[in-house]
C-alpha cells in the first residue's frame, strides 16, 4: 500500500501534472512536494544568487515559496493538504536520497527550459534509474 508519496516540483507544467496525478491516484496518501534548488554554476542564475547569500537555506526557501504556494493551491482543488520541503544541490541526487523515506515518487517527465534540460540533464530519467522506490513518470 502506498501511504507516502514524494512529488518533486519545479516551475513546469509537467510537475504540476505530476502533483495532480499523485493527488488523484493516491487520495489517502501523505503527499510531500519537494523543490530542489540546484548547485551553483554559470548557467543557473538562481543557484548563483544562493551561493552569494549568507543563509543559503533561508534564501532557497524564500525563492521556492511561490512554487510551493502553487502546489498548495493545486492540493486545495483536491481538498487535500500536502507537506513541502526545499532541498539544495543536484536535483536528481537530492530526490533519490530523499526517496528512501517514501513508498513512491511521482515526477513530471521533463521540466524547465530546453537549455536547462541540455545542461542539467534529464532529472526524471536519473531518478527513474536510481530511485530505491517505484517511480511514476507523468507527461
Automatic annotation (TrEMBL):
It comes from Halorhabdus utahensis (strain DSM 12940 / JCM 11049 / AX-2). Belongs to the universal stress protein A family. Coiled coil: none annotated. This is UspA domain protein. Pfam families: Usp. Gene3D superfamilies: HUPs. Residues 1-139 form the UspA domain. PANTHER family: STRESS RESPONSE PROTEIN NHAX, UNIVERSAL STRESS PROTEIN. InterPro entries: Rossmann-like_a/b/a_fold (IPR014729), Universal_stress_UspA (IPR006015), UspA (IPR006016).
Amino acid at each position: 500500500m502506498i501511504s507516502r508519496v514524494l512529488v518533486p516540483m519545479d516551475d513546469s507544467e509537467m510537475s504540476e501534472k505530476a502533483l495532480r496525478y499523485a493527488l488523484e491516484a493516491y487520495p489517502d496518501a501523505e503527499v510531500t512536494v519537494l523543490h530542489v534548488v540546484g548547485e551553483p554554476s554559470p548557467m543557473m542564475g538562481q543557484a548563483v544568487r544562493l551561493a552569494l547569500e549568507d543563509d543559503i537555506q533561508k534564501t532557497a526557501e524564500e525563492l521556492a515559496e511561490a512554487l510551493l504556494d502553487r502546489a498548495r493551491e493545486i492540493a486545495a482543488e483536491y481538498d487535500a493538504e500536502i507537506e513541502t520541503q526545499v532541498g539544495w544541490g543536484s536535483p536528481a541526487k537530492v530526490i533519490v536520497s530523499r526517496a528512501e523515506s517514501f513508498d513512491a515518487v511521482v515526477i513530471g517527465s521533463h521540466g524547465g527550459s530546453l537549455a536547462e534540460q541540455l545542461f542539467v540533464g534529464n532529472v526524471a530519467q536519473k531518478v527513474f534509474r536510481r530511485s530505491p522506490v517505484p517511480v511514476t513518470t507523468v507527461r
